[in-house]
Design brief:
- The chain has 271 residues and is of the alpha/beta class.
- 49% of the residues lie in helices and 14% in strands.
- It has twelve helices and five strands.
- Strands 3-2-1-4-5 form a five-stranded mixed beta sheet, with helices on both faces.
- A hairpin with a 4-residue loop joins strand 2 and strand 3.
- Helix 2 crosses helix 3, helix 4 crosses helix 5 and helix 8 crosses helix 10.
- The protein is globular and about 60 Å long.
Length: 271
Amino acid sequence: MSNSSFDEIKYLVFDIESVPDARLIKLVRYPGEELTDQEAIEKFQNELLEGSNGVSDFIPVTFQLPVSVCIAKVREDFSFAGVVSLDEGKFRASEMSRLFWHGIENLYNHASMVTFNGRGFDIPLMELMAYRYGYQVKRHFKDKWAGRNRFSTKHIDLQDWISNYNAIRVNGGLNLLAKVLGKPGKMSTKGDDVYGLYLENKFEEINNYCIHDVLDTYFVFLRTRVLLGELEISREQELVSDTRKYIQENVDTVPAFREYVENWGDWIPWP
């Protein structure tokens, strides 16, 4: 990709799928106990479930590892320029993390990150990976207007923004917001399925699910730009149509696109 191509990318819409780090869980939570990876994870989940009165057994981000990192590149005019999966085919945590921060710090340091709950999960996870592997992330940590600043334009966390900075809980999440726009949202794979797929070495299925979330996030992002007056609704609909055409034309090169376009719906507001 040429430098001019790097320069034309204004937004990086990304999502990360992760799994519990069993080794770290055993080291921190259950030192000296003879537990298998699965036993350690289940024990931790049961403790979390009990501690939350049955609300959640989700293992905290500090005990997670990335297994898929997918990024949609978006131009300044909000048009879709394609999607990439980091370290595709191997999905190594160390390499995905290195590539992620290299892109953020060097190749696309002028671009803004766009996430759904990135402040609460994705960014902290990748910061912890930089810590684990010893990667320099100087601009991200030192520039007060970079991705760590809650109100900066260098990281647009759509959940944070739509919730009025946690004034409400966005019940239904990305899935709800996507379906309001007629987009697929959750399909054959859901977040709770990721660890099971990981145990079966079904990394491609995890990666497809990650790409689906990235596409949903992109379309939600476009609608928020309408709310802000940065896009007319007619132009947003043109961008949606152009992206659908791009997805249809690339189903053979990006397998995740096929299920997405097969479940595509148009925006028909109700009542």
